[in-house]
């Protein structure tokens, strides 16, 4: 077997483990030093292939570790990219059941929508020109690793902990997105506060970072796809029977209820 074949074989085996952990809601051990960043992105694309083969549809991309708050919380200091499928989208109007998830957390985000398809090697200008709307969003992250701890390569292989996402109402795109207060409330109590300027200095820079990541690791996005720019605050653990609200000043509000009785 050539090196390339054995590497591909190993990536497929690890992707299957992570995919199974996600579907069964079980945490697995970290891979740690075993993986390079290149291998980790290869595993991530194998994970996507498994989902597409089951009939899922690509719905967007997400960035991770675009803010100091997230980098400090997780100890990872490099921007990462993952994929979103249509099955990960949840409607804020219906209570989200937490059964089957490992140890979900939630974080406030800014979402961009692309009115046009993004080709694989799209330039920054092309990507910015393709955005037609912005919305507040909530991302539910759920690491498939024990204790929600991981290295850079681990979290990339695990599709950047992507699990579910909720979108608020879309508003017309503006590039005036910096300096807006971000508030995360649980049952009406302020739990995290931040500012959109924490996202790479300005959420517009998330579009530029996505352009770089897409040229390097991505394969473009279909028209109508979403980009989550990365959380401006630390994530908080999700519990049953709660109402979680994110407010992005001047952009809007997005809410999610979790099913079950509050503990
Ligand atoms: C990785 C995902 C990071 C963000 O917004 O920074 C992320 C994690 O924290 O588990 O989605
Ligand atoms: Mg996030």
Describe the structure in your own words:
The chain has about 260 residues and is an alpha+beta fold. It has one domain (about 5-260): Fumarylacetoacetase-like, C-terminal domain (Fumarylacetoacetate hydrolase, domain 2), CATH 3.90.850. Helix content is about 30%, strand content about 25%. The protein has 6 helices and 12 strands. The strands form 2 sheets. Strands 1, 2, 3, 4, 5, 6, 9 and 10 form an 8-stranded mixed sheet that branches. Helix 1 (about 5-25) packs across helix 2 (about 35-55) and helix 4 (about 125-130) crosses helix 6 (about 205-215). The longest helix is centred in the N-terminal third of the chain and has 22 residues, at about 5-25. The mean pLDDT is about 95.
Q: Summed up, what is this model?
A:
The chain is α+β, with helices and mostly antiparallel strands and 263 residues long. It is built from six helices and twelve strands.
What small molecules accompany the polymer chains?
2-oxoadipic acid, magnesium ion
Indicate the CATH topology.
Fumarylacetoacetate hydrolase, domain 2
Count structural domains.
Answer: 1
The chain-level mean pLDDT equals 95
């Amino acid at each position: 077997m050539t090196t390339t074949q054995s590497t591909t074989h190993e990536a497929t085996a690890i992707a299957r483990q992570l995919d199974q952990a996600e579907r069964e809601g079980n945490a697995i051990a970290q891979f740690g030093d075993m993986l390079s960043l290149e291998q980790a992105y290869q595993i991530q694309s194998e994970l996507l292939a498994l989902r597409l083969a089951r009939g899922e549809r690509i719905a967007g991309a997400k960035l991770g570790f675009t803010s100091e708050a997230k980098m400090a919380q997780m100890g990872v200091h490099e921007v990462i990219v993952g994929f979103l499928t249509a099955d990960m989208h949840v409607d804020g109007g219906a209570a989200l059941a937490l059964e089957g998830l490992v140890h979900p957390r939630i974080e406030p985000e800014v979402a961009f929508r692309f009115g046009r398809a993004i080709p694989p090697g799209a330039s920054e200008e092309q990507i910015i020109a393709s955005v037609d709307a912005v919305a507040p969003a909530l991302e539910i992250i759920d690491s498939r690793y024990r204790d929600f701890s991981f290295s850079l390569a681990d979290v990339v292989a695990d599709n950047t902990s992507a699990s579910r996402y909720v979108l608020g109402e879309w508003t017309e795109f503006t590039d005036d997105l910096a300096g807006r207060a971000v508030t995360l409330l649980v049952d009406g109590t302020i739990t995290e506060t931040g500012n959109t300027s924490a996202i790479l200095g300005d959420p517009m820079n998330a579009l530029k970072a996505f352009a770089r990541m897409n040229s390097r690791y991505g394969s473009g996005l279909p028209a109508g796809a979403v980009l989550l720019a990365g959380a401006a605050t630390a994530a908080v653990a999700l519990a049953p029977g709660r109402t979680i609200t994110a407010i992005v000043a001047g952009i809007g509000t997005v809410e999610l209820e979790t099913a079950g009785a509050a503990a």
